[in-house]
Amino acid sequence: MMAERPAHPPALDARSYALRRRIVEVLDAARRGHVGAAFSLVEILRVLYDDVLKYRPDQPDWPDRDRCILSKGHGCLALYAILADHNFFSEAELMTFCRRDTILGGHPDARKTPGVETSTGSLGHGLAVGVGMALAARMRHRPNRVFVVLGDGECDEGAVWEAALCASKHALANLTAIVDYNKMQSYGPTRLVQDLEPFMDKWRSFGFAVDQVDGHDVEALRETFARLPFHAGKPSAIIGHTVKGKGAAPVEHNAAWHHKSKLSDADVDMLKRAIEEYGCDRPA
Question: How many structural domains comprise the chain?
Answer without folding.
Answer: 1
